[in-house]
Design brief:
The complex is a heterotetramer, with two copies of chain A and two copies of chain C. Helices cover 31% and strands 19% of the residues of chain A. Chain A has helices spanning 79-92, 107-117, 140-143, 146-159, 175-184, 223-236, 250-258, 269-272, 276-290, and strands at residues 8-10, 13-15, 19-21, 43-45, 62-65, 68-71, 98-102, 123-129, 164-167, 189-192, 196-198, 215-218, 241-244, 261-266. In chain A, helix 4 (146-159) packs parallel to helix 5 (175-184). The two termini of chain A are 33 Å apart. By secondary structure, chain C is α/β, with parallel strands linked by helices. In chain C, 18% of the residues lie in helices and 36% in strands. In chain C, a hairpin with a 2-residue loop joins strand 5 and strand 6 (63-68). Chain C is globular and about 50 Å long. Chain C starts with a strand and ends with a strand. Classes of the chains: A alpha/beta, C alpha/beta. Chains A and B meet through strand 11, helix 6 and helix 7 of A and strand 11, helix 6 and helix 7 of B. Bound molecules: flavin-adenine dinucleotide (FAD) (2 copies), flavin mononucleotide (2 copies) and FE2/S2 (inorganic) cluster (2 copies). The site of one FE2/S2 (inorganic) cluster (FES) has 12 residues of chain C, from loops. One flavin-adenine dinucleotide binds at residues 37, 48, 52-55, 66-69, 71-75, 113, 116, 212-215, 244 of chain D.
Amino acid sequence: MSKVDMSVQVGPLKLRNPVMLASGCVGYGNEISEYTDLNTIGGIVTKSISLKPRKGNPPQRIVETTGGMLNAIGLTNVGVEEFVNSKIPFLKKFDVPVICNIAASTVKEYVECTQILTTEETIKAFEINVSCPNVREGGLQFGNNVKEVGKVTGKVRAVTEKPLIIKLSPNVSYISEFAKVVKKEGGDAVSAINTLMGTAFDINTRKPKIQNVNGGLSGPAIKPVAMAKVLEISRNVDIPVIGIGGIMSWKDVIEFMIVGSSAVQIGTLNFIDPSAPGRIVKELEDYCAQNGMTRISDLTASYVID
Amino acid sequence: MSKVDMSVQVGPLKLRNPVMLASGCVGYGNEISEYTDLNTIGGIVTKSISLKPRKGNPPQRIVETTGGMLNAIGLTNVGVEEFVNSKIPFLKKFDVPVICNIAASTVKEYVECTQILTTEETIKAFEINVSCPNVREGGLQFGNNVKEVGKVTGKVRAVTEKPLIIKLSPNVSYISEFAKVVKKEGGDAVSAINTLMGTAFDINTRKPKIQNVNGGLSGPAIKPVAMAKVLEISRNVDIPVIGIGGIMSWKDVIEFMIVGSSAVQIGTLNFIDPSAPGRIVKELEDYCAQNGMTRISDLTASYVID
Amino acid sequence: MFIINAQISEKIELGHNIFLFKMFCPEIASSAEPGQFLNLRINETYFPLLRRPFSVCDISGDHFYILFSPFGEGTKQLAKKSVGDNIDTHGPLGKGFNYKGEYETAVIVAGGLGSAPFPFVTRKINNKKDIISFVGGRSQKDVITYGMENVSTSTDDGSEGFEGTVVDLLETKVDELKSKNVKVFGCGPTPMLKALQSFCSKNNFDCEISTECAMACGFGICQGCPIEQTEYKDQYLLVCSDGPVFNAKDVVL
Amino acid sequence: MFIINAQISEKIELGHNIFLFKMFCPEIASSAEPGQFLNLRINETYFPLLRRPFSVCDISGDHFYILFSPFGEGTKQLAKKSVGDNIDTHGPLGKGFNYKGEYETAVIVAGGLGSAPFPFVTRKINNKKDIISFVGGRSQKDVITYGMENVSTSTDDGSEGFEGTVVDLLETKVDELKSKNVKVFGCGPTPMLKALQSFCSKNNFDCEISTECAMACGFGICQGCPIEQTEYKDQYLLVCSDGPVFNAKDVVL
Ligand SMILES: Cc1cc2nc3c(=O)[nH]c(=O)nc-3n(C[C@H](O)[C@H](O)[C@H](O)COP(=O)(O)OP(=O)(O)OC[C@H]3O[C@@H](n4cnc5c(N)ncnc54)[C@H](O)[C@@H]3O)c2cc1C
Ligand SMILES: Cc1cc2nc3c(=O)[nH]c(=O)nc-3n(C[C@H](O)[C@H](O)[C@H](O)COP(=O)(O)OP(=O)(O)OC[C@H]3O[C@@H](n4cnc5c(N)ncnc54)[C@H](O)[C@@H]3O)c2cc1C
Ligand SMILES: Cc1cc2nc3c(=O)[nH]c(=O)nc-3n(C[C@H](O)[C@H](O)[C@H](O)COP(=O)(O)O)c2cc1C
Ligand SMILES: Cc1cc2nc3c(=O)[nH]c(=O)nc-3n(C[C@H](O)[C@H](O)[C@H](O)COP(=O)(O)O)c2cc1C
Ligand code: FES
Ligand code: FES
């Protein structure tokens, strides 16, 4: 089998392969590194970091649904300072692009976080989470408002030279409008999608199964929705897309690339099988070789629509 | 076991029980009547009717996804005239409220359809489908645009005295905004939700698995999203809601009622088990009796949120 | 039409990855017609969510047979079932072959798993009409002749019988067929059915084909399975309830 | 920690709807500690999607045991597995009981399926310390004393042993317990653990409890399983990786 070029380019960000680990689904890399060799994957996106540490939502935070799960973690994180002091040193040990995901409640806070972190050499790019459905003060209004997303993009762009990715909310009618404004305001790429808003109730207690009432739906159940969002962006906006949502196998990675993803992120699957990302990279390479492909990046937006 | 009052009131529409059959998932009642006695269910919503017959989309129209299915039927239907001549006579034979679902590409067409059909005694209410994701000219823009939904509601309201239900699209950020305008323009109730927009591709041909590219996602995969939409309306707008999306059992019916549904509709489940709706009605009655409830309608919006 | 448990009473591996299940179900066994199908709920979970359609392969006493190959998620799970397991079965569904008519010789043409409906068709026609069967496959292991009579075979790679498609094989027998009053019955992948359709049209053979389409309901309520008509273009027919068997003249593949 | 197939080598029905599976898996058998848990992938489909946590019930040679009752979708499917089936197992996970310490008498307190971890705990402590076990359940059939020593039982309905909760039963023995240098080990439903927590606090008994929480990952990457700390309120602990066993003093239930 001939050697396949597995590298992909997400705007200015070059990755050794398209398989990244999604924010909030791999912590800061410590635990997962026992199962998947971080040196073999395309990139790792850290759990959303905020300026100050966040305790997050009270339990119950998780409930399983058909083919998916709802979570309302509430952006639990150690805060910028502790992240720099104790999490980055661990990630430094690996030869893997670290993409730092940032969450905030105000534009100002997004900017401050980025300003502090942009000097960290280990961080190769930023992913701005404008779309977390579980934080009441922030998140939602940004993610569902084109103007706010544009503003956040522009202001953060002004304080970092590093590749800037905006992670979009799927809970909107036309996600491509958001991708457009990101491009206009100087963003380098978009990630699509974050979780869908959902809920589940206990019929005996009549209470929500998760304490926060609403949670974010992830897993294979949402894959068709995520695919449609990526395709919408890909057909309407000239900006690199990182495809996310329900990826469970190498076949799903190919499918996401076909509809327009330059790279992908794996979320929920890590909980079920933390060794999957490493295996998927190998399987993708085999698939490309068997199909006589020389570059995996040729798959991106290779859809055939009559 | 004591007798339970299973009847529910959806605005001006009284149903013998909350279990209705969803539009597009039972045709015009003929085939399903062999499996579920239509005289035992709460109501039947007909396949979307348009002014003229519609051929619909070319195959492939259906693809299964994890816990769900995508469809792009394209509103295949016999048109108003044939509906009146050949479908209504069959439904007349049953003692079941017939809710006529109407789809159109222009406000004018919605109004015309309703005008013609409102004189049909067999039709007990209208459900206006402003949210079909599979018709290119119409549908989508209406369903995702608050002003258009308001306009359709008002204009259709003007030509019928019958209960008027607007079926809302889930592909929006704040569905309660749509429910608000429906109420303001004189609508009697809303149905939530129609299908989520989704797609799936064949990795070998790189073509969409359904010919229309995008399809509507239904089935248990979407239940958490549907539940959140119903709850959002219920908490923000004083209008009856008909809950729809992924109902697979009597437990799901209870869950939908708890978050705010006055009644529910069963869609995809009919394909898998057309005898389920009749069985679910019995199971609901047993549940209520066993739990000492006198009226099933007490479940509506009985959620307990701290 | 029933929605009923059918119990696996025998599980036969016909060949490489080809399974024949004998299922106990008097209701279906006594009412099914050749060419009809059964819609099986593979398990009680939602994975897979929808039923899967299978031709009635044969009937004997209180039993029906299905023939399949593990292929996607549903058929793989089905292949793992054991004797004694119950399978929730919806059927018999659809319109089958019109095998009675005026013709003298039935010409059966099957490609791959398209052989599935023909043991039952053969049983019904046998002793009343002559039967000639043509069975094709990609390779030797894909040629399924179970329950068929008077069989010639073809393979794409020449590993068994005639080298070429089953319709190519048919072409070589066209004179012989023309000398008889034949009716053709076909089932197989769409490209094969297309070739068969034009072969029969060219030679003026009456021909019925069993078509395939992705289905959600299998009994006419979802409009998921349209097939274009030759004449009346304003409306599709439904594979599940107007078919799956159509006269080859009536539909566009 | 392993992600590895464990093969069911024996399937024992301990009582009404209570199953004990003996699983062959030398890697886990040789590394698990009492109170740790295993996260089982019930099947290869996505129904259920997530793994399900089960305590290491016991270890013998190359085998580990799990004890469970069919309850929801996952445990129902698990109960249907057969000897010879492989189950994809992640573990051993979490922090177990600190059973070594200075105490003289181990007081084991279990409610319902909370008995699951104690056969292994008992095996480890036995012959080194005294053990007194208290096992409660709603009714006789819910009382699981498998693998435990020196057992007193209680039932809510009085159908076996003391009538009342297992902590009520404990209260009746408080003087006896006070006369010894005890350490309490508890596992069971949260209301029981709460009662046990306050009983031990009141009487100044050192107590470790195994807690439960809905989990997505089971090994610290999802932040799905928070538990409130008694002292440091700014941050939750994680049941899956900081626990599931905690000192009763350290957590708020
Ligand atoms: C009327 C009828 C009778 C049939 N009789 C038989 C039979 O007797 N024996 C038999 O083995 N098979 C038969 N089939 C085909 C059989 O139903 C499919 O092979 C089965 O549904 C596949 O299910 P799966 O879960 O294994 O595959 P899936 O995982 O559902 O499908 C795998 C891939 O195949 C595609 N696919 C699935 N079904 C079809 C289809 N019908 N046509 C084209 N592509 C498809 C899917 O889109 C998917 O990409 C029949 C089909 C019909 C419509
Ligand atoms: C560390 C740990 C060790 C465990 N050890 C054992 C054991 O040894 N034996 C045993 O039988 N069980 C044990 N459990 C509990 C077991 O994991 C659950 O019973 C199992 O996950 C239920 O899965 P299911 O699919 O059958 O039910 P599901 O269908 O998932 O659940 C049915 C209902 O129960 C609720 N539920 C599910 N799991 C929990 C939970 N953990 N706490 C509260 N509510 C829940 C769900 O929200 C749902 O409403 C343990 C749990 C933990 C966290
Ligand atoms: C438990 C959990 C926590 C998550 N936390 C974050 C987060 O902190 N920041 C973020 O941008 N996305 C977060 N996500 C969203 C994922 O990164 C991803 O977008 C989503 O789960 C869809 O992908 P999947 O279906 O592969 O999981 C979280 C998802 C889950 C399931
Ligand atoms: C095959 C199919 C056809 C449908 N056709 C219509 C339609 O014509 N008009 C309409 O308002 N909704 C239509 N729907 C949407 C359903 O009525 C329902 O809103 C949706 O399927 C969600 O419910 P479920 O998950 O129970 O199927 C259709 C759904 C399916 C699956
Ligand atoms: S499969 Fe539903 S109408 Fe044919
Ligand atoms: S279950 Fe994921 S962190 Fe505990």
